[in-house]
């Protein structure tokens, strides 16, 4: 029974302990398993989440040496909150409670167990992190080729260098894994001393079995998120296209067949040969990057009708390929006259008879050779004699030069041959006598325009006999004409040419009259000339300035048909006969038109307000055409005046600008007392002339006066402009700070303004203002000892600390040219102690004044109650005492100064007392 209770008690305690463990809060936050890549950084995460105060925290490395487990301190915080780091591969932790560090994985030895420890006054906390080191492999590819027993092989090597753990390598050819045949894969793994390994896989295959131009190596490794595919280009064989062709050439006077065996687009080169059981033939090799060709030369007479075969061997061929060509067999079956020649078909004659017309020129007798020979020779003779003069054999044709005559008749024999082949043709030529027949002419009339004239051509061609031709023109019209005669094959042609003007202002008809025996009446052909187009007249005018004078240029251009127009000029407003003819420029354009151009230059002022007329005369115009340009009347110039101050000179400048036509030196200043400097400048601006007259003068010479500029032209035009020179003044210079006026003791002198500034203060200013109407002024201030004061605008500025050395009398001048004004300023520098004493003095003076007023008031009240004597004694006694006491204080204060200074200072003190009393009242 006792054991049962003990068992139950143990069970209860065990359950309580488990519940206590489950109810505990999470103290450490740590990542237990971490994978690091060799050569890269990895984070070791460990943080304390409890509420105890941590005194020390650190990372340790667990090391097993001689079967003993040791711990090496790496990085952390000491008890005095000082951080330590014993290895450069670790970064400093974030805080005492957050030991997260960044670690550089520099070798495989970094793999192991790392312990995170936290110590507090109550208890210690620790946990461990297991670091696994992997290495990312480097992929390398290499392609080799070699020939074994005449077969070309390639080997592609793919290496995954420095991987941990070992990589996995596979191959892709044309997107699929290669089969066992004809591909062979050899894999080898090499271990390195640093804990990594290299896996090398070699893909071996014969080149002619590979149709793709590349292979791909696929590497899988835990450090790669996806398999890495590396593709390399390999050599491939391509099946060529083979063919055969033959062409005939001449070599040494003999015909030779050139048979070409051609292989194109293949790789590698094709083995080509000619299947002929004969002696070694002449061979030519012609190979480029795409086509391989071998040519054989075969004598045509030897290989006539033979079969020629080209043999082709290539790795892509399963068996030898062949191409056959059959060389033709030649024959020459005969020679005959060409169809279409006039023949005399007499069945009783054994030979052919050819009939030619007497007088026919350039007769040609063509011969046709029947056969397939590549070439042949033809020889001809007449009556067993060489060909007579005037007949030549050109190619395969007999050509009779000149007209056919009876001597060309006879028996002709022509022989054609090629090597052993020969053929003969005999034919008889007869000449048919010439019989004259009337052939009417073919009439044609044509009109052309050339060099501004109409060329009418009338022709009567191919007539027997020749036709007669003449021209019929309207009354009063004449032209130039001539005739040409030609003959061909017994027919005659005549052509006549008539030259007339290209056009006329009225309608004109010319007739060509042809007479011929075949016509019952003469034939007429008429041509009507077109009316002349009116000329295109253009007139332009422009002006230019030369030596101050305006000239007008007028251009008159006339585009017309030939002849060129005549241009004359008329000046004036009437139609009187005062025309002048200027030189003209004449230009013939590409379309046959003629351009006439004439220009005149006149002085504009001489013909102001008149008309200039361009008069054009041309045959197409019934009357001369006028085009007029009006020359404008001279206008008055634009006159303007201005005055300005010069920044680089004490003088003022008055400017008179005049812009217009013909402006020269016709402007002047009207001045009573001209003591300044004058200058005149003129220039051309656009279409007018601009003149500028300047006058420099001192301001006091013409201040408050009027200046007048007058323009007077040579033609009597007059204009003037007047401007007023202002009257300036400066009344005074005022001090804007609070001051006290100090009057000269003798009277009549300038008032001095007294100003008090604080001692040991920076940037104290005395504000001034200049009264007057001047647009600007110069202001400067100088101390009585000659030292100038810095001015900022209209203010005196004391930048440094003020001392008693800065006290004194200052004079300020305001000036604008000859206008000036001054002000005197007495500057006193008052320290804080002096200011306190002065305030005490002012308060005492104010109290004395108030006491005096009370005494006077009491005295006035007592006067009513007492007699005259009593009142006089009581009032005068206290007043006299007060005055004596006050004067005695002042005498004591001024005892140390000289008599002159003491008198002046006493006067200033008395003034101050009066002012203080007034301000107090």
TrEMBL record:
Its main location: membrane. Belongs to the nectin family. Residues 1-18 form the signal peptide. Pathway: Carbohydrate degradation. It comes from Scomber scombrus (Atlantic mackerel). It is a single-pass membrane protein. Residues 25-132, 137-233, 535-630 form the Ig-like domain. It is found in: Membrane. This is Uncharacterized protein si:ch211-149e23.4 isoform X1. GO terms for molecular function: phosphoglycerate kinase activity. GO terms for biological process: glycolytic process; heterophilic cell-cell adhesion via plasma membrane cell adhesion molecules; homophilic cell adhesion via plasma membrane adhesion molecules. The chain crosses the membrane at residues 835-862. Keywords: Cell adhesion, Disulfide bond, Glycoprotein, Membrane, Repeat, Signal, Transmembrane, Transmembrane helix. GO terms for cellular component: adherens junction; membrane. SMART domains: IG.
């Amino acid at each position: 029974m006792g054991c049962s209770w003990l068992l139950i008690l143990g069970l209860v305690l065990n359950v309580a302990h488990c519940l206590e463990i489950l109810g505990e809060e999470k103290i450490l936050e740590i990542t237990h398993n971490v994978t690091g890549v060799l050569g890269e950084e990895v984070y070791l995460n460990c943080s304390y989440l409890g509420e105890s105060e941590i005194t020390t925290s650190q990372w340790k490395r667990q090391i097993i040496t001689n079967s003993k487990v040791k711990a090496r301190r790496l990085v952390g915080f000491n008890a005095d909150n000082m951080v330590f780091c014993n290895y450069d591969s670790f970064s400093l932790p974030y805080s005492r409670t957050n030991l997260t560090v960044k670690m550089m994985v520099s070798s495989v030895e970094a793999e192991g167990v790392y312990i995170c420890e936290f110590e507090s006054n109550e208890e210690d906390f620790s946990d461990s992190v297991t670091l696994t080191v992997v290495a990312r492999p480097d992929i390398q590819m290499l392609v080799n080729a070699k020939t074994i027993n005449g077969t070309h092989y390639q080997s592609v090597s793919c290496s995954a260098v420095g991987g941990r753990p070992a990589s996995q390598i596979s191959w892709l050819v044309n997107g699929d894994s290669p089969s066992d045949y004809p591909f062979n894969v050899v894999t080898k793994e090499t271990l390195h001393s640093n804990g990594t390994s290299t896996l090398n896989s070699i893909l071996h295959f014969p080149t002619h079995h590979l149709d793709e131009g590349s292979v791909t190596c696929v590497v899988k490794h835990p450090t790669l998120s996806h398999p890495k595919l590396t593709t390399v280009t390999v050599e491939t064989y391509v099946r060529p296209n083979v063919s055969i062709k033959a062409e005939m050439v001449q070599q040494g006077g003999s015909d030779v067949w050139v048979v070409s065996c051609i292989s194109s687009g293949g790789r590698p080169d094709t083995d080509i040969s000619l299947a002929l059981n004969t002696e070694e033939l002449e061979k030519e090799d012609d190979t480029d990057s795409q086509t391989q060709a071998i040519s054989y030369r075969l004598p045509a007479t030897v290989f006539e009708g033979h079969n020629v075969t080209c043999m082709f061997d290539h790795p892509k061929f399963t068996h030898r390929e062949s191409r056959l060509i059959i060389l033709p067999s030649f024959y020459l079956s005969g020679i005959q006259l060409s169809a279409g020649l006039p023949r005399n078909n007499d069945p009783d004659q054994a030979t052919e008879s050819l009939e030619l017309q007497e007088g026919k020129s350039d007769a040609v007798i063509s011969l046709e050779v029947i056969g397939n020979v590549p070439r042949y020779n033809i020889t001809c003779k007449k009556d067993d004699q060489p060909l007579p003069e005037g007949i030549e054999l050109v190619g395969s044709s007999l050509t009779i030069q000149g007209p056919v005559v009876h001597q060309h008749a006879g028996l002709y024999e022509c022989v054609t041959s090629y090597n052993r082949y020969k053929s003969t043709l005999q034919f008889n030529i007869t000449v048919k006598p010439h019989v004259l027949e009337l052939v009417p002419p073919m009439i044609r009339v044509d009109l052309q325009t050339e060099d501004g004239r109409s060329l009418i051509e009338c022709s009567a061609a191919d007539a027997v006999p020749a036709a007669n031709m003449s021209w019929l023109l309207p009354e009063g019209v004449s032209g130039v004409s001539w005739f040409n005669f030609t003959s061909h094959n017994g027919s005659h042609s005549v052509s006549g040419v008539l030259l007339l003007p290209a056009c006329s202002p009225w309608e004109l008809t010319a007739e060509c009259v042809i007479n011929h025996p075949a016509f019952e009446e003469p034939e007429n052909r008429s041509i009507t000339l077109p009316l002349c187009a009116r000329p295109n007249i253009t007139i332009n005018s422009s002006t230019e300035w030369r030596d101050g004078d305006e000239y007008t240029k007028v251009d008159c251009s006339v585009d017309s048909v030939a002849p060129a127009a005549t241009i004359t000029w008329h000046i004036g407003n009437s139609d009187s006969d005062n025309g002048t003819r200027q030189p003209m420029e004449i230009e013939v354009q590409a379309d046959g038109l003629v351009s006439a151009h004439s220009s005149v230059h006149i002085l504009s002022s001489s013909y102001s307000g008149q008309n200039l007329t361009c008069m054009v005369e041309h045959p197409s115009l019934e009357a001369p055409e006028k085009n007029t340009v009006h020359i404008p009347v001279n206008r008055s110039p634009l006159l303007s005046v201005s005055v300005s101050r010069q920044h680089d000179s004490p003088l003022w400048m008055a400017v008179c600008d005049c812009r217009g036509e013909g402006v020269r030196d016709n402007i002047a200043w009207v001045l009573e007392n001209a003591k300044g400097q004058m200058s005149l400048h003129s220039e051309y601006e656009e279409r007018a002339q601009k003149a500028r007259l300047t006058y420099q003068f001192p301001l006091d010479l013409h201040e408050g006066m009027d200046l007048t500029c007058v323009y007077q032209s040579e033609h009597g035009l007059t204009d003037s402009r007047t401007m007023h020179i202002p009257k300036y003044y400066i009344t005074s210079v005022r001090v804007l700070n609070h001051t006290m006026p100090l009057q000269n003791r003798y009277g009549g002198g300038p008032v001095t303004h007294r100003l008090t500034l604080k001692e040991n203060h920076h940037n104290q200013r005395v504000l001034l203002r200049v009264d007057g109407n001047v647009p600007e002024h110069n202001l400067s201030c100088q101390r009585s000892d000659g030292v100038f004061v810095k001015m900022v605008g209209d203010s005196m500025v004391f930048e440094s600390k003020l001392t008693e050395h800065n006290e004194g009398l200052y004079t300020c001048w305001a000036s604008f040219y000859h206008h000036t004004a001054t002000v005197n300023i007495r500057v006193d520098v008052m320290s804080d102690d002096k200011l306190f004493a002065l305030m005490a003095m002012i308060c005492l003076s104010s109290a004395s004044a108030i006491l005096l007023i009370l005494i006077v008031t009491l005295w006035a009240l007592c006067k009513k109650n007492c007699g005259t004597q009593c009142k006089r004694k009581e009032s005068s006694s206290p007043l006299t005492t007060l005055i004596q006491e006050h004067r005695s204080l002042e005498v004591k204060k001024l005892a140390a100064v000289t008599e002159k200074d003491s008198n002046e200072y006493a006067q200033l003190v008395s003034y101050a007392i009066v002012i203080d009393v007034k301000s107090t009242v």
